[in-house]
Design a protein that fits this description.
The protein is 36% helix and 21% strand. With 289 residues, the protein is an alpha/beta fold. The strands form 2 sheets. A 6-stranded parallel beta sheet has the order 8-7-6-9-10-11, with helices on both faces. A 5-stranded antiparallel beta sheet has the order 3-2-1-5-4. Helix 2 (14-25) packs antiparallel against helix 4 and helix 5 (139-148) crosses helix 9 (267-287). The protein is elongated, with a radius of gyration of 23 Å.
Length: 289
Protein backbone atom coordinates (compact mmCIF):
# COMPACT_ATOMS: atom_id res chain seq x y z
CA UNK A 1 0.00 0.00 0.00
CA UNK A 2 1.02 3.61 -0.53
CA UNK A 3 1.15 4.31 3.21
CA UNK A 4 3.50 1.36 3.73
CA UNK A 5 5.83 2.71 1.05
CA UNK A 6 5.93 6.20 2.48
CA UNK A 7 7.03 4.79 5.85
CA UNK A 8 10.07 3.07 4.34
CA UNK A 9 13.44 4.67 5.17
CA UNK A 10 14.68 6.71 2.22
CA UNK A 11 11.35 6.49 0.39
CA UNK A 12 11.83 9.92 -1.15
CA UNK A 13 15.41 9.30 -2.30
CA UNK A 14 15.41 9.08 -6.07
CA UNK A 15 18.68 7.16 -6.17
CA UNK A 16 17.53 4.68 -3.53
CA UNK A 17 14.19 4.27 -5.31
CA UNK A 18 16.03 3.54 -8.55
CA UNK A 19 18.24 0.96 -6.87
CA UNK A 20 15.18 -0.79 -5.45
CA UNK A 21 13.47 -0.72 -8.84
CA UNK A 22 16.46 -2.24 -10.62
CA UNK A 23 16.66 -4.96 -7.99
CA UNK A 24 12.96 -5.72 -8.41
CA UNK A 25 13.28 -5.96 -12.20
CA UNK A 26 15.59 -8.95 -11.79
CA UNK A 27 12.55 -11.01 -10.84
CA UNK A 28 9.46 -9.27 -12.25
CA UNK A 29 8.42 -6.42 -14.55
CA UNK A 30 6.99 -3.07 -13.49
CA UNK A 31 5.04 -0.22 -15.03
CA UNK A 32 7.12 2.95 -15.24
CA UNK A 33 5.04 6.12 -14.94
CA UNK A 34 6.81 9.30 -16.06
CA UNK A 35 5.66 12.91 -16.06
CA UNK A 36 6.03 13.61 -19.77
CA UNK A 37 4.88 17.24 -19.73
CA UNK A 38 2.94 19.74 -17.64
CA UNK A 39 0.97 22.90 -18.21
CA UNK A 40 0.33 25.41 -15.43
CA UNK A 41 0.68 24.34 -11.80
CA UNK A 42 1.48 20.66 -11.23
CA UNK A 43 2.70 18.51 -8.30
CA UNK A 44 5.96 17.47 -10.06
CA UNK A 45 8.08 18.54 -12.98
CA UNK A 46 8.59 16.77 -16.32
CA UNK A 47 10.89 13.77 -15.84
CA UNK A 48 9.60 12.85 -12.37
CA UNK A 49 8.76 9.17 -12.17
CA UNK A 50 7.45 6.26 -10.18
CA UNK A 51 7.42 2.54 -10.91
CA UNK A 52 4.41 0.40 -10.02
CA UNK A 53 4.14 -3.35 -9.42
CA UNK A 54 1.27 -5.42 -8.11
CA UNK A 55 2.18 -4.62 -4.53
CA UNK A 56 5.07 -2.13 -4.50
CA UNK A 57 5.90 1.45 -5.46
CA UNK A 58 9.25 3.04 -6.24
CA UNK A 59 9.55 6.81 -6.52
CA UNK A 60 6.71 9.34 -6.67
CA UNK A 61 5.04 11.70 -9.14
CA UNK A 62 3.78 13.98 -6.38
CA UNK A 63 1.22 12.08 -4.33
CA UNK A 64 -2.44 12.99 -3.98
CA UNK A 65 -5.36 11.82 -6.07
CA UNK A 66 -3.40 12.04 -9.33
CA UNK A 67 -0.85 9.54 -8.06
CA UNK A 68 -3.53 7.20 -6.71
CA UNK A 69 -5.31 7.15 -10.09
CA UNK A 70 -2.03 6.66 -11.91
CA UNK A 71 -1.14 3.72 -9.65
CA UNK A 72 -4.45 2.01 -10.39
CA UNK A 73 -4.12 2.59 -14.13
CA UNK A 74 -0.52 1.31 -14.06
CA UNK A 75 -1.55 -1.89 -12.28
CA UNK A 76 -4.40 -2.47 -14.70
CA UNK A 77 -2.10 -1.85 -17.66
CA UNK A 78 0.59 -4.13 -16.25
CA UNK A 79 -1.90 -6.98 -16.25
CA UNK A 80 -2.71 -6.53 -19.95
CA UNK A 81 -1.38 -9.16 -22.31
CA UNK A 82 -1.26 -6.60 -25.13
CA UNK A 83 0.44 -3.70 -23.31
CA UNK A 84 1.71 -1.52 -26.18
CA UNK A 85 5.47 -1.77 -26.65
CA UNK A 86 5.75 1.97 -27.17
CA UNK A 87 3.80 2.67 -23.99
CA UNK A 88 0.83 4.99 -23.68
CA UNK A 89 0.22 8.59 -22.61
CA UNK A 90 -2.74 9.82 -20.55
CA UNK A 91 -3.80 13.37 -19.75
CA UNK A 92 -5.08 14.62 -16.39
CA UNK A 93 -6.61 18.01 -15.65
CA UNK A 94 -5.83 18.87 -12.02
CA UNK A 95 -9.16 20.34 -11.13
CA UNK A 96 -12.14 19.57 -8.93
CA UNK A 97 -12.68 16.14 -10.50
CA UNK A 98 -9.43 15.00 -8.89
CA UNK A 99 -9.96 16.89 -5.67
CA UNK A 100 -6.82 18.90 -6.40
CA UNK A 101 -6.64 22.66 -6.82
CA UNK A 102 -3.36 22.90 -8.75
CA UNK A 103 -5.32 23.92 -11.84
CA UNK A 104 -2.74 22.61 -14.29
CA UNK A 105 -2.54 19.71 -16.72
CA UNK A 106 -0.26 16.69 -16.49
CA UNK A 107 0.58 14.18 -19.20
CA UNK A 108 1.82 10.82 -17.87
CA UNK A 109 3.56 8.14 -19.91
CA UNK A 110 3.08 4.48 -18.92
CA UNK A 111 5.69 1.90 -19.99
CA UNK A 112 6.22 -1.76 -19.18
CA UNK A 113 9.84 -2.32 -18.12
CA UNK A 114 11.76 -5.46 -17.24
CA UNK A 115 15.26 -6.74 -16.56
CA UNK A 116 16.33 -6.01 -20.14
CA UNK A 117 15.70 -2.29 -19.58
CA UNK A 118 17.87 -2.02 -16.44
CA UNK A 119 20.92 -0.41 -18.02
CA UNK A 120 18.88 2.13 -19.99
CA UNK A 121 16.79 2.98 -16.94
CA UNK A 122 19.89 3.52 -14.80
CA UNK A 123 21.15 6.05 -17.35
CA UNK A 124 17.77 7.66 -17.93
CA UNK A 125 16.47 7.95 -14.37
CA UNK A 126 19.59 8.62 -12.29
CA UNK A 127 19.43 12.27 -11.23
CA UNK A 128 22.27 14.67 -11.92
CA UNK A 129 24.36 14.90 -8.75
CA UNK A 130 26.13 18.11 -7.75
CA UNK A 131 29.48 17.91 -5.95
CA UNK A 132 29.78 18.88 -2.28
CA UNK A 133 33.08 18.83 -0.38
CA UNK A 134 32.52 18.44 3.34
CA UNK A 135 35.59 19.05 5.52
CA UNK A 136 35.12 17.56 8.99
CA UNK A 137 34.11 14.13 10.23
CA UNK A 138 32.52 15.24 13.52
CA UNK A 139 28.93 15.10 14.73
CA UNK A 140 27.70 17.96 12.55
CA UNK A 141 29.48 16.57 9.51
CA UNK A 142 27.90 13.17 10.07
CA UNK A 143 24.45 14.76 10.41
CA UNK A 144 24.93 16.72 7.19
CA UNK A 145 25.94 13.57 5.32
CA UNK A 146 22.67 11.96 6.41
CA UNK A 147 20.63 15.06 5.57
CA UNK A 148 22.09 15.21 2.05
CA UNK A 149 21.63 11.48 1.37
CA UNK A 150 18.24 11.78 -0.40
CA UNK A 151 19.15 15.06 -2.16
CA UNK A 152 20.87 15.57 -5.53
CA UNK A 153 24.39 15.88 -4.15
CA UNK A 154 27.51 13.73 -4.37
CA UNK A 155 29.50 14.26 -1.17
CA UNK A 156 33.27 14.09 -0.86
CA UNK A 157 33.78 13.81 2.92
CA UNK A 158 37.30 14.87 3.92
CA UNK A 159 39.22 14.82 7.21
CA UNK A 160 42.88 14.92 8.26
CA UNK A 161 42.23 12.20 10.84
CA UNK A 162 42.39 8.63 9.68
CA UNK A 163 39.61 6.14 10.53
CA UNK A 164 37.21 8.89 11.61
CA UNK A 165 34.46 8.03 9.14
CA UNK A 166 31.55 5.70 9.98
CA UNK A 167 30.91 2.52 8.07
CA UNK A 168 28.73 2.28 6.11
CA UNK A 169 28.02 5.71 4.62
CA UNK A 170 25.06 6.64 2.41
CA UNK A 171 25.22 6.22 -1.36
CA UNK A 172 27.04 8.98 -3.26
CA UNK A 173 29.39 9.65 -0.32
CA UNK A 174 33.14 9.22 -0.81
CA UNK A 175 35.36 9.38 2.27
CA UNK A 176 38.86 10.78 1.95
CA UNK A 177 41.76 11.09 4.38
CA UNK A 178 43.87 14.14 3.44
CA UNK A 179 46.95 15.30 5.33
CA UNK A 180 47.42 18.20 5.08
CA UNK A 181 43.69 18.57 4.84
CA UNK A 182 43.72 21.77 2.76
CA UNK A 183 45.53 19.95 -0.06
CA UNK A 184 42.23 18.36 -1.04
CA UNK A 185 40.84 21.75 -2.14
CA UNK A 186 42.99 21.71 -5.27
CA UNK A 187 41.50 18.38 -6.36
CA UNK A 188 37.82 19.33 -6.02
CA UNK A 189 35.71 19.27 -9.18
CA UNK A 190 34.71 22.55 -10.75
CA UNK A 191 31.41 23.83 -9.38
CA UNK A 192 31.81 22.13 -6.00
CA UNK A 193 30.05 23.50 -2.95
CA UNK A 194 32.38 23.49 0.06
CA UNK A 195 31.42 23.10 3.72
CA UNK A 196 34.15 23.63 6.33
CA UNK A 197 33.77 22.28 9.88
CA UNK A 198 36.96 20.52 10.88
CA UNK A 199 37.88 19.66 14.48
CA UNK A 200 40.11 22.77 14.82
CA UNK A 201 39.91 26.44 13.91
CA UNK A 202 43.49 26.24 12.66
CA UNK A 203 42.52 23.65 10.06
CA UNK A 204 39.39 25.62 9.18
CA UNK A 205 41.52 28.68 8.45
CA UNK A 206 43.89 26.70 6.22
CA UNK A 207 40.98 25.25 4.25
CA UNK A 208 39.30 28.66 3.89
CA UNK A 209 42.54 30.24 2.68
CA UNK A 210 43.03 27.49 0.12
CA UNK A 211 39.45 27.97 -1.12
CA UNK A 212 40.06 31.71 -1.53
CA UNK A 213 43.27 31.00 -3.45
CA UNK A 214 41.32 28.75 -5.78
CA UNK A 215 38.61 31.38 -6.20
CA UNK A 216 41.31 33.93 -7.02
CA UNK A 217 42.79 31.64 -9.66
CA UNK A 218 39.71 30.06 -11.22
CA UNK A 219 36.57 31.26 -9.42
CA UNK A 220 34.92 27.87 -9.92
CA UNK A 221 33.66 27.00 -6.42
CA UNK A 222 29.89 27.52 -6.31
CA UNK A 223 29.65 27.99 -2.54
CA UNK A 224 32.09 28.14 0.37
CA UNK A 225 30.51 27.85 3.81
CA UNK A 226 32.23 27.95 7.19
CA UNK A 227 30.58 26.78 10.39
CA UNK A 228 30.81 29.27 13.25
CA UNK A 229 29.53 32.51 14.66
CA UNK A 230 29.72 36.17 13.73
CA UNK A 231 32.71 36.40 16.06
CA UNK A 232 34.49 33.58 14.24
CA UNK A 233 33.82 35.31 10.94
CA UNK A 234 35.32 38.56 12.25
CA UNK A 235 38.44 36.79 13.58
CA UNK A 236 38.90 34.83 10.36
CA UNK A 237 38.38 37.99 8.33
CA UNK A 238 41.23 39.72 10.17
CA UNK A 239 43.54 36.74 9.74
CA UNK A 240 42.71 36.41 6.05
CA UNK A 241 43.43 40.10 5.49
CA UNK A 242 46.81 39.54 7.12
CA UNK A 243 47.39 36.81 4.54
CA UNK A 244 46.77 39.27 1.72
CA UNK A 245 43.14 38.58 0.84
CA UNK A 246 40.97 41.54 -0.11
CA UNK A 247 37.52 42.22 1.35
CA UNK A 248 35.80 41.23 -1.89
CA UNK A 249 37.61 37.88 -1.76
CA UNK A 250 36.70 37.28 1.88
CA UNK A 251 33.08 38.02 0.94
CA UNK A 252 33.02 34.68 -0.90
CA UNK A 253 32.87 32.96 2.50
CA UNK A 254 29.44 32.31 4.01
CA UNK A 255 29.72 32.27 7.81
CA UNK A 256 27.72 31.34 9.78
CA UNK A 257 26.30 28.64 7.51
CA UNK A 258 22.67 27.62 7.40
CA UNK A 259 19.37 29.32 6.65
CA UNK A 260 19.04 32.59 8.63
CA UNK A 261 16.56 32.42 11.49
CA UNK A 262 17.26 28.81 12.45
CA UNK A 263 19.23 29.14 15.66
CA UNK A 264 19.26 25.58 17.00
CA UNK A 265 22.70 24.13 17.60
CA UNK A 266 21.82 20.44 17.60
CA UNK A 267 23.72 18.64 14.79
CA UNK A 268 20.50 17.53 13.11
CA UNK A 269 19.06 21.07 13.17
CA UNK A 270 22.25 22.54 11.72
CA UNK A 271 22.27 19.79 9.07
CA UNK A 272 18.70 20.53 8.00
CA UNK A 273 19.48 24.23 7.79
CA UNK A 274 22.65 23.68 5.77
CA UNK A 275 20.91 21.25 3.41
CA UNK A 276 18.24 23.88 2.74
CA UNK A 277 20.93 26.49 2.10
CA UNK A 278 22.68 24.24 -0.42
CA UNK A 279 19.38 23.70 -2.22
CA UNK A 280 18.82 27.46 -2.30
CA UNK A 281 22.27 27.87 -3.83
CA UNK A 282 21.59 25.13 -6.37
CA UNK A 283 18.21 26.47 -7.49
CA UNK A 284 19.48 30.06 -7.62
CA UNK A 285 22.28 28.90 -9.90
CA UNK A 286 19.82 26.99 -12.09
CA UNK A 287 17.58 30.04 -12.38
CA UNK A 288 20.54 32.08 -13.64
CA UNK A 289 21.01 29.56 -16.43
Amino acid sequence: MLSDYLQQPGAYSVSVALQRLLQHLLSAPACLVTVESTQGSAPREAGAWMAVTADQLFGTIGGGHLELEAIQLARNALALADFPAEGMVRRWALGPSLGQCCGGVVHLRFERVGAGHAHALRTRLMPALHPVALFGGGHVGAAIVQALAPLPFAVRWIDSRDSVFPDPVPPHVECEHSDPVEAAVRELPSGARVLIMSFSHAEDLLIVAECLKRQRESGDLSFVGLIGSATKRAVFGARLRQRGFAEEEIAHITCPIGVPGISGKEPEVIAASVAAQLLQSLYAQSAQG
